[in-house]
Amino acid sequence: MNLVDQATQFIAQRYEGKHRTVMQIPYAAHLFGVARILKSEGYHEAIVTAGLLHDLLEDGIATEQEIEELFGQNVLLLVKSATELPKTYEWQLRKEEVIARIGEKSEDELAILLAEKIYNLRSIIVEINQFGDSLWTKFNAPKEKQEWYYRSIVEETMKYHPQARLLPQLVQVIDELFVNSEHELF
C-alpha cells in the first residue's frame, strides 16, 4: 500500500465522527480536498500525503512520533510546517504567525498551505451560497479580518515565492469570494 492510501485509511479512522463547517461536512472531506488539489497539480506522493495529514498535529489527532513511524520523516516535516500555533492563542496571533513564516517555507511546504487555503475558500463560497452572509458570524474573526488574512498570504507569497504553482488559483478564489461577495456568487 502506498503512502497516500495509508494516510487515507489513517485519517478516515482518526477523524471518524468529526465534522467541520455549518453544513456538518465530515472533517476528513477537508483533508481529502486539500490532497486532491495537490495531486491535481502533480505534486509527488509525500506532499499529497502531508496534505492529507496536515491537521493531525494541530488537532491533537496524532503525535509526531506516530506520523514519523507510519509515514516517514519527510512527511512529518511537511506536516509540522503546516501546523499552526495551538488554538489557545488568539486568532490574530495565529494568523500573523502563519503569514510571517511564508518566506521561510520551501516550495513543497508552501504548496500544502496554499492548497489548504484554496480548499477553505471554496468551502466558504459553497456555504455562503447556501446560508448567506450570516455565515461570517460562525468564524473566529469577521469577514474583513478573514479577507485581510487571505490577501496577506497572497502578498507574502508574491514577495517570496512569486512562481508558486497554486498562487493563481488562490488569487482567483479570494476574488471570487471577497470581490463578488456583495453580489450573489452564482
Order of helices and strands: HEEHHHHHHHHH
Per DSSP E runs of 2 or more residues, the count of β-strands stands at 2
Rg estimate, integer Å: 16 Å
- How helix-rich are the residues, as a percent range? 55-70%
**How are strands sequenced across the largest beta sheet?**
1-2
Based on CA inertia axes, which overall geometry fits? Answer: globular
Q: Profile the largest sheet.
A: 2 strands, antiparallel
| Unreliable segments of 5+ consecutive residues | none
What does this structure look like?
The protein has a two-stranded antiparallel ribbon. With 186 residues, the chain is mostly helical. A hairpin with a 4-residue loop joins strand 1 and strand 2 (25-26). The protein is globular, with a radius of gyration of 16 Å. It is built from ten helices and two strands, in the order H-E-E-H-H-H-H-H-H-H-H-H. Helix content is 66%, strand content 2%. Helix 2 runs antiparallel to helix 3 (45-53) and helix 9 (143-160) runs antiparallel to helix 10 (167-179).
